[in-house]
């Protein structure tokens, strides 16, 4: 009999749920819904709706699903299955394990979203064959997962890998965490969008304005198309983000000396300029000896890194 689990990726802008064959990491079916910063009750209901939709599409009975795993964008209490703090979702002290187990009657495990994406890449993606590497995901925020000697490194308080909150500009921009000058405040999708909108308010023209008028949002493809068209506003904002992100990655190389850095997130997948510029600058800034032994690649599982990793949380 096949081993099926449900994996849930709770990010800052979307919930992605999938039915996963945990023997081989194959995603059988998925469902996705957008999230808004509307608080705990809204998010919990959204999660349940998304999971139910994925189950319905997969047409697999609950009796064949052995576990649920969820990776949440924020700080989590893994042992008790609680989402302690997720500022980008306006969620605090959410008992995810309890709620999902009561609703679906399936054992549920909770982890951080980047942690589970790292597990996905370690078990079935770009990290296969490597014992010491770092996964960095650029999305609503910037997060990372650390693998040391073949195991996910959690740290003394379970919060290891918060690369988005290393300080890149002392006293700089205010971050969602309440601090100033964090990498996330300069290199995340949120930071890039704020910078673009700020430039437009100051009178700088950008073709992004048309995309916002049509859809109300800035999509990764819109940014990519703007760069291809030579849009100076977008190009300058992406270049600045790349400058800060490469400084963060160079610091990772210098400090941890990993074999591999895996880069993921919608912006990195969609915007070649952002990825290539960041990698080039990273190697220019890092110490020569560790940099020579470090490979940098994109995620192999792409959007599915999180749900595949979450589905394997039951394995420990």
Observed structural traits:
alpha/beta; Nucleotidyltransferase, domain 5; 316 residues; 5-stranded mixed sheet; single chain
What does this structure look like?
The structure is a single chain. This protein is of the alpha/beta class and 316 residues long. It folds into two domains: 4-120 and 304-315, 2-Layer Sandwich (Nucleotidyltransferase, domain 5), CATH 3.30.420; 126-299, 2-Layer Sandwich (Nucleotidyltransferase, domain 5), CATH 3.30.420. The protein has helices at residues 40-58, 96-104, 113-124, 184-187, 189-201, 208-215, 220-228, 232-256, 266-270, 272-285, 288-292, 305-311, and strands at 4-10, 14-21, 26-34, 65-72, 75-77, 82-86, 91-94, 108-112, 133-138, 142-148, 151-152, 260-264, 295-298. The protein has a five-stranded mixed beta sheet. Strands 11-10-9-12-13 form a five-stranded mixed beta sheet. Helix 3 crosses helix 12, helix 5 (189-201) runs antiparallel to helix 8 (232-256) and helix 8 (232-256) crosses helix 10. The radius of gyration is 19 Å and the shape is globular. The mean pLDDT is 94.
Please state the CA-atom Rg, rounded to the nearest Å: 19 Å
Largest sheet: 5 strands, mixed
Q: Can you tell me the CATH superfamily of the largest domain? A: ATPase, nucleotide binding domain
Ranges where pLDDT stays below 50 over 5 or more residues in a row are: none
- With strands numbered from the N-terminus, the spatial order across the biggest sheet is 3-2-1-4-8
Count of discrete alpha- or pi-helical segments spanning 4 or more residues: 12
Helix content: 40-55%
CATH T-level topology of the largest domain: Nucleotidyltransferase, domain 5
Q: What is the CATH C-level name of the largest domain?
A: Alpha Beta
Shape assignment:
globular
Number of domains: 2
Say how many strands there are.
13
Order of helices and strands: EEEHEEEEHEHEEEHHHHHEHHHEH
Class inferred from helices and paired strands: alpha/beta
Separation of the first and last Cα atoms: 21 Å
